[in-house]
Amino acid sequence: MKKLVFFFAAVIGLPLGLLFASGTQEEAKVNMELTVYSPAPKELIDLVIPAFEKETGAKVYVIEAGTGQIFNRIKAEAAYPQADIVLTGGIDSAGAFRDYLTEYVSSEDVNMIQSAKETPWYNAMFLNPMGIIFNKNLVDEGAVNSWMDLTKPEWEGKVLMPDPRKSGSAFGELTIFLHAYGRDGEAWSKLIEPLHKNLLITTSSSHTYKFVASGEYPLGLTHEKNAFKYSNAGEPVGFVYPSDGTAIRPDGVYLVKDGPNPELAKKFIDFVLSKEIMMQLGELGYRTNRKDVEPPAGFPDIDVITLCDYDPIWASENREALLDQWTKLEESK
User: Fold this and answer.
1) DSSP state letters, 95-137
2) Considering the entire predicted model, what is its pTM?
3) Taking the domains of the chain in order of start, what are their residue ranges?
4) Which CATH class for the 2-126+250-299 domain?
5) Rounded distance, CA 37 to CA 67, Å?
6) Which terminal Cβ of the chain has fewer Cβ within 10 Å, N or C?
7) Which helix (H) or strand (E) holds 76?
8) What are residue 318's phi and psi, to 5 degrees?
9) Is the pLDDT of residue 23 over 50?
10) Tell me: the pLDDT tens digits for 131-164?
C-alpha cells in the first residue's frame, strides 16, 4: 500500500504530505467546533461565547430556547447527539435528563461554593434565590411578603409567571411552592390552585420582569438578578424574598453525553467557571458560584433569606408527574 501511495505522489508531482492535508485540516476544523444549546439571556451569551472563541480559536454555534425545550431536544437527539454543551438551566429541570449528560468535574471545582464532586452531572455556575418582583408604583411596600399573599383576590390576573413546561425558572418556582407548603399534596390545594387563579402565564421568562418593570403588570415571579438589574438602573422595581420560604436554585453548565467534541466541551466548562469570566458575569448581576467572587452590589447575604428544605433531585425525578398535574390545572381554568 505504501508503494502505491508513493507512486501516486510521484506521478502527480505532489509532496506526500499534501495528499493528506485536506483530510487533516478538515479533522482539525471539526475538532475546533462546538455546539451550545442555551436558555441563557443574550447578555450572557454575548459575553461568554466571543471570549471563548477568542481564547481558543474555536467556532461556537449557539441554539437558544427554553430550558425544557432544550433538554427535550437533547433527549430526542440521543441516538445522534448534536450538542456538546448546555449553558445554564436549573438543575431541578436538568436532573430529569441525567441519562443524556456526561459526568465531569471542572478543574475550577476547588474554587466553587457548591462542588460538583458529589453531583458531577452538572457544574453550578450561579446560585439563584427565587422570589417576587413588583412595581413600586403599583404595589405598596409590604403589601406582598409571601407566596401566599399572591393568592389574594385583588391580584387576580395581575401576577406574571412563565409556563413551567417550557421555562426552567418557572418549574423551579412550582417545585419551591411544593417544598414550602407540602409535597404530599397540601401545596396544590393550599397554595398552587388559588394562586393559579391569579396568574397570567407568559410565553417567555423575560416577560415576567420586563412587563413589571415597565408598569404593565404589578407582580411577577422570577429570580433576584432580574429584579436588581432594573432597580439598580433606577427603575421603580422591588423584590421580595418570600417569608414562607424560597430556595437557592443552582444554575448549571452541562456536558452532553456523546456530544461531537467532548474535549473542547470540557475546556469550555473550565473557561466559563474561571474567575475572569465569573467576575464579568458578576458585574452583569449574577450571584456566581465562586468563593472568590463577591455577590453583586445590593444582593443580601444568603443567610438572611428564609429558605425551605428544597430537594432539586426530587423535583427532577418527579418532573413529568408534576407537569402533568400542572397541565390539568391549566386545562381546568
Assistant:
1) GGGGGGEE----TTGGGBSS-SSS-TT-EEEEEEEEEEEEETT
2) 0.79
3) 2-126+250-299, 128-248+303-332
4) alpha beta
5) 9
6) N
7) helix 67-76
8) -105, 15
9) no
10) 999 999 999 999 999 999 999 999 999 999 999 9
Between 3.20.20.70, 3.40.190.10, 2.40.240.20, 3.90.79.10, what CATH number should domain 128-248+303-332 receive?
3.40.190.10
Please spell the DSSP secondary structure of 195-234, one letter per residue: HHTTEEEESSHHHHHHHHHTTS-SEEEEEHHHHHHHHTTT
157: phi > 0 → left, psi -120 to 50 → alpha, else beta; which? left
Are the folds of 2-126+250-299 and 128-248+303-332 the same?
yes
Pairing of strands 123-135, 237-240: antiparallel
Question: To the nearest whole percent, how much of the chain has pLDDT over 70?
Answer: 91
CB 116: neighbour CB atoms within 10 A?
23
Check pLDDT > 50 for residue 9: no
Least confident of 10-14, 50-54, 100-104: 10-14
Q: Measure the CA–CA gap between 81 and 73, rounded to whole angstroms.
A: 10
Q: Is residue 185 very low, low, confident or very high in pLDDT (cuts 50, 70, 90)?
A: confident
- Rounded distance, CA 275 to CA 288, Å? 10
